[in-house]
Amino acid sequence: MTSDVTNILLKGRARDVYRRDHAKADGRALRVYGYSPHAGEPGEELLASASDQSELRRDPLRDTWSLYAPHRQARTFNPSAAADPLAPAGGGAVTEIPFRDFELAIFDNRFPSLKPGAPAGALTGWAEGPARGRCEVVVYTSAAEGSLHSIGQDRRVLLLEALVDRYLALHAEGAAYVMPFENRGEQVGVTLPHPHGQIYSFPFVPAPQAAAAAAFAAGYDLTADHLGWGGRFDVASEGGVSAFCPPFARFPFETWIMPRRRCPGPWAMTADEIEALAALLGDVTRRLDALFGAPMPYMMSFQAAPGGAARDYQFTVQFFPILRDAGRLKFLASVEQHTGVFTVDVVPEAAAERLRAL
User: Fold this and answer.
1) Residues 268-289 pLDDT 10s
2) Which of 7, 175, 219 is nearest to 99 (CA)?
3) Helix, strand, coil shares of the chain as percentages rounded to 5?
4) Which domain range does residue 251 map to?
């Protein structure tokens, strides 16, 4: 086991942070981020299996790609608190993060769908492309429980600074598309309750993001559109950044966060905008939780420019909540799955009004 104990000072968009790089014995990378240099010797840690394999297959009718990764069937499923793989090490526990404490950590997934150097046709030869890329886990805090609201502003800013660091590194590697995201709640299929998100670095631009990039390149201006809505879809605003329910939302209470100027991604945001985005990440989560008096299950993603280079792209953070009312899930059934046409039970302007009132 080797560990680089050097802490690298990163000149952040809003605040300077330190990153400590640790190399696991299985070759995976672990990065620990914090406002102070990280110290302490690593202990024993969880290691990946060498047997994983995956591949990409294209659907010629939809012109979309699917990832096949059978080794992910063995991934961690609802572990006990004592077996939390995202907890700090200590007390005899062996986890992914072999330090007794940390502020925020990002490491290569032990069960990746995408992997550097993945061979073409690893499973059957049907694949039309190797599943090359990266899958990373983003651990928001060493605490076993929490949310984007409860972790606080300092930790949310640290998260954004860490994501910018990873965006820049993955784009430099040649990633076609980078998407940080968070799945929250058992209803979405989350099997690790420890507060965390993920980053997928794709070797291609997925169809929805390619369509968005084409629309922006053709001249569509989301920021001008948003201004023209006259505030009736707005939920909250902070320092040049707005949260709103888009009038074309596909999920009840779907909420987006967006800088009020053309901006390809968080790496191009000002210090004030980063602070405002961090505040709204917490505020939107708080409002969604308050809506029905319980933690809202959702799918959240950062939607930034493919390759980091499209200056006409408009960066957004998109929350897809999956409750349409207290205790009532929004199911994606036949119409949505087979046609892509969503039926929505809550009109976006009514959703915005309810969230705005919280």
Assistant:
1) 999 999 999 999 999 999 999 9
2) 7
3) 25, 25, 45
4) 220-356
CA distance 259 to 243: 9
* 173, 204, 235 - which closes a domain: 204
Catalytic residues: 196
Q: What is the dihedral of CA 227, 228, 231, 237, to 10 degrees?
A: -10
> How far apart are alpha carbons 255 and 266 in whole angstroms?
18
Structure tokens at 145: 């429980």
Query: Tens of pLDDT along 144-186?
Result: 999 999 999 999 999 999 999 999 999 999 999 999 999 999 9
CATH number at residue 342: 3.30.428.10
CA distances to 22, 80, 112 from 48, in Å: 15, 20, 10
List all residues 6 or more positions away from 161 whose beta carbon is below 8 Å from its beta carbon. Answer: 10, 12, 13, 14, 15, 17, 33, 274
Asked if 122 and 146 count as a contact pair (C-beta separation under 8 A), the reply is: no
CB 58 within 8 A of CB 204: no
How far apart (Å, rounded) are the C-alpha atoms in residues 238 and 218?
Answer: 29
CA 116 to chain centre: 19
Q: What are the structure tokens assigned to 169, written together?
A: 């590194």
Residues 235 and 340 in one domain: yes
Q: Cα separations (Å) of 71 from 9, 86, 110, 128, 182?
A: 37, 20, 10, 20, 21
Structure tokens at 23: 């190399």
Residue 354's DSSP bridge partners are none
DSSP string, 39-58: ------B----TT---EEEE
Q: Which residues fall within 8 angstroms of residue 301, CB to CB, at 6 or more apart?
A: 179, 180, 181, 182, 317, 318
The encoded tokens of residue 241 equal 């950044």
